[in-house]
Specification:
The complex is a heterodimer. By secondary structure, chain A is mostly helical. Helices cover 75% and strands 3% of the residues of chain A. Chain A has helices spanning 3-34, 41-59, 62-83, 93-115, 142-164, 166-176, 178-183, 188-211, 221-235, 240-266, 271-296, and strands at 131-134, 138-141. Chain B has helices at residues 2-24, 27-52, 61-80, 97-119, 124-144, 170-193, 195-205, 207-212, 217-243, 253-266, 273-291, 295-309, 313-322; strands at 154-155, 245-246. A two-stranded antiparallel sheet of chain B has the order 1-2. The chains are: A mainly alpha, B mainly alpha. At the A-B interface, helix 4, helix 9 and helix 11 of A face helix 5, helix 10 and helix 12 of B.
């Protein structure tokens, strides 16, 4: 285990973490403001990835693909909010879970219908495909470094949006007291559509960005969705800051656990037993992290309390 | 009264349908019905937590899978004559269903005790997400643990046996599954009218009020959650026996979602809700699946319609119309 490998893995963990943040930010905003649990958030991630792959494939431009992912996910998000989600705000969580589960079925099978069952490929643009030499002589893929940059800029942008703009004031007020801001003359249903579309666009962007290093396929959204749930449970539901901290924590735990645990088990067990026990435990590590956080703080690290 | 009449009609149908299929010599229909009955049993398990206790668990696949793997591990050791454990005491595999059922129920009950003790510290949306996450934990563990097949799962060559019956005959295996389902329904009914169930119901409606009259919600909910997990685990063992195959898919969150769908489709907290839901689901899968490869779209649309426009589920619709 060399220092260079360790630094690489830490960067991988941060990169994974900021991508989870893009997913978790939308979920936590939608829950914080509208009180809605949205299982179909992973479908918006998938929509973004498919839109990017289709447009980038047709035009040859990765950037156009990214624009398409943002636009498609935001448009689908706004449409779904107006047709379905809007009817669920006053329902209990059980109805929300079920209706959004139904949306997943519709989205997944619909995408399979349109694009077929085979994965699509989204290529990393040539100007980001090589490695970059970091201080200390570490070679790291430029694209993954760009992902970290994009993720952190989005986090900074969201922070500014929420703390400095009029929309941000409305979002914070909506989270604090829905009825009051409606009474003060804010068009609450338009605000909800905007927030939902914003969260959807971030999920779509994450799908497109990650789609270029993995494959673009039906069902790609759900594993990420569940990790995003873990992130916002750890960070505290409704908190953007909590989502960022939780996302990086989950990203690092998952990545480093997969590398370090087999090595750690290797100190006491023989090679193959250590590899299998280590990797099995590593897959459970983030859930153990979540359990520990919940025992310590049942409403998450930055949660306001229920 | 009309819901009771519907329930009686359902029991008659559940007994009559396989006999009719047996008479027609259509073993496939009996297998289909067996699937529906087993999935209904899993739903009845969830309904004890969800309907009686108000706990929206999106992680019941964990118990379904634990039951399935209990059967898989016991039967795979029995078919290779390789003991599970030799020290400190010798434990052999087994092909006897009653033993497998007990192990499955106890194993998934212990799983439910651990998951419930942690998850019930929270409520509402946290509870949904945490149960989901614990289910995924088991899923990934099953995939990455190579001893029992890992991602490929485990195959069992011959269905396990029950003393005095030939479980390879579809209608006899169906009879066993139906007996367990009716037993679980009786358990649900008994719990709902017992002092324990009434206290649980009080805690579901208002935790604060229940506490002021001296009811401790946490223990009640945990007990109900464990019972619920045990019933779903038993269903998992039967499901594995039906397919003679266990795989991590049993732990997947889609399985949790489907079990939840059975309960809601039929009607939450209604005794026969999961039965109606599971039968309808299997029937739709069979009919729509034959018409279109993309039948999940229609299932999704139907589900969405039920949630948005028929909150009482299918039983709610029928019972209201008749009443």
């Amino acid at each position: 285990m060399t220092a260079i490998l360790l630094v690489e893995q830490i960067l991988n963990g941060v990169q994974f973490g900021v991508m989870l943040f893009l997913m978790a930010a939308g979920l936590t905003l939608v829950f914080g403001v509208m009180g809605l649990i949205n299982l179909a958030h992973g479908s918006l991630y998938m929509v973004g990835a498919f839109a990017a792959a289709a447009v980038a494939g047709a035009t040859g431009s990765f950037l156009l693909g990214l624009v398409a992912s943002l636009a498609a996910a935001a448009a689908v998000g706004a449409l779904v909010e107006m047709l379905v989600i809007r009817r669920l705000y006053d329902r209990d969580h059980l109805d929300q879970v079920l209706a959004t589960f139904a949306l997943i079925l519709i989205f997944s099978e619909g995408t399979r219908w349109v694009f077929g069952s085979f994965p699509l490929y989204l290529n990393i643009p040539s100007w980001l495909s090589g490695p970059v030499t970091l201080p200390g002589g570490i070679q790291y893929p430029a694209y993954r470094l760009a992902l970290i940059g994009v993720g952190l800029s989005v986090a900074a942008g969201l922070h500014l949006l929420i703390s400095r703009t009029r929309l941000g004031v409305q979002i914070r007020a909506g989270a604090a007291d829905r009825d009051m801001i409606a009474a003060l003359g804010v068009d609450i249903s338009r605000l909800y559509t905007v927030i939902f579309a914003l969260g959807a666009a971030l999920a779509g962007l994450a799908g497109a960005l990650v789609g270029a290093i993995q494959s673009v396929q039906v069902g790609m959204g759900e594993p990420v969705l569940i990790l995003a749930f873990v992130v916002i449970v750890i960070g505290g539901i409704g908190s953007i800051r909590g989502a960022l901290v939780g996302a990086v924590l989950v990203g690092l735990t998952d990545t480093l656990g997969g590398i370090l645990l087999p090595v750690a088990f290797g100190l006491v067990l023989d090679q193959s037993a250590a590899a299998s026990a280590g990797s099995a435990l590593a897959t459970m590590l983030i859930y153990l992290l979540m359990a520990v956080v919940l025992i310590w703080r049942p409403t998450g690290l930055f949660g306001a309390g229920t | 009264m009309s819901e009771r009449r519907l329930n009686i009609a359902l029991v008659v149908g559940l007994i009559g349908f396989p006999l009719w299929a047996h008479w027609l010599d259509e073993p496939f229909l009996i297998t289909l019905a067996t699937r529906a009955v087993i999935l209904a049993l899993a739903g009845v398990g969830l309904n004890i937590a969800l309907g009686l206790g108000g706990m929206v668990s999106l992680g019941h696949a964990a118990f379904f899978g634990l039951g399935g793997y209990s059967m898989g591990i016991l039967a795979s050791h029995a078919q290779t004559f390789d003991p599970i454990m030799e020290w400190p005491l010798l434990i052999q595999g087994t092909k006897a269903m009653p033993v497998i059922w007990i192990v499955a129920a106890v194993g998934s009950g212990l799983g439910a005790l651990a998951i419930g003790a942690l998850s019930l510290r929270t409520s509402g949306v946290y509870f949904i997400m945490i149960t989901l996450a614990f289910g995924q934990m088991f899923y990934y563990f099953a995939i990455s643990w190579p001893a029992y097949g890992g991602e490929d799962g485990l195959s069992i060559y011959v269905r396990n046996g029950f003393p005095g019956l030939n479980t390879l005959v579809p209608v006899q295996f169906y009879g066993l599954c139906l007996t367990l389902l009716l037993g679980a329904l009786a358990l649900h009914w008994q719990i709902a009218r017992s002092p324990f169930g009434l206290a649980l119901n009080a805690a579901r409606q208002s935790s604060a009020r229940a506490q002021t009259v001296g009811i401790a919600p946490f223990r009640l909910r945990l007990t109900a959650f464990v019972v619920s997990g045990m019933v779903t685990g038993l269903a998992g063992a039967l499901f594995a026996d039906l397919n003679r195959f266990v795989s991590p898919v049993m732990f997947s969150w889609q399985t949790s979602g489907e079990i939840l769908v059975f309960v809601i489709l039929g009607g939450v907290a209604r005794l026969f809700g999961p039965v109606v839901g599971a039968v309808l689901f299997i029937a739709l899968e069979h009919v729509l699946g034959g018409l279109s490869d993309f039948w999940h779209i229609w299932l999704g649309a139907l589900l969405l319609g039920i949630v948005l426009f028929a909150p009482g589920g299918v039983i709610g619709l029928i019972a209201r119309r008749r009443g």
